Amino acid sequence: MEEITRLDEVTIFDGKLTFLIPHNWEEAVEKDHYLYSRAGADSGWFRVSLNTSSAVDETPAQMLKRLFDGRENVTYDEQTGNCVCAYERDSEDGGAKIHLYYWIVAHVVEPDLVREAVFSYTVLSERTNDQQTTKMLSLIRQIVNRTNFSTGSGHRS
After folding, report:
1. Strands (DSSP E) along the chain, which ranges?
2. How high is the pLDDT of residue 154?
3. What gap in Å lies between CA 4 and CA 101, rounded to an integer?
């Protein structure tokens, strides 16, 4: 794996979500998500989607708590205020066995919103223990924990 020497900040979904990606990754915009990977990659696709909910009959904090009730592997990042749930699963795509790593990252955006970003990283199953995959997963874990959410008007929460 080439060493990652530079990360670029990307802001997507009309300014509502900001995070870092490796400089050499390319962005593709799909219907309801963004996809990032190295040019010509045959494994290692990073995908992100965003859901926004308004708190109506509960506070945003209660809504955030409910979102993660019953889930395992939930952490809270003191620095960002993000709640993060990580999990993984095996699947198939076009006959190829793949392994997916998921991170649900949610944050209260004042005054009454909860934003939930769903990140995934997909690799070919035979590459789950490769050094390149291991290094990239370490980086992605840091990236998703540091995700910034905003109202979309340029103000970060």
Report:
1. 7-12, 17-22, 25-29, 34-38, 45-54, 74-76, 83-93, 96-109, 113-124, 148-149
2. 47
3. 20
CA distance 115 to 51: 6
Taking a C-beta distance cutoff of 8 angstroms, is the pair 21, 10 a contact?
yes
Report if residue 107 sits inside a domain.
yes
pTM check: above 0.85? yes
CATH number for 130: 3.40.1000.10
105 part of a folded domain: yes
Does residue 98 lie within any of the structural domains? yes
Structure tokens given for 28: 């593709």
**pLDDT tens-digit profile of 98-127?**
999 999 999 998 888 999 999 999 999 999
Task: Please say whether the beta carbons of 15 and 152 come within 8 A.
Answer: yes
Give the total number of structural domains in the chain. 1
* Enclosing domain of residue 78: 7-149
Low-confidence ranges of the chain (pLDDT < 70): 1-5, 153-157
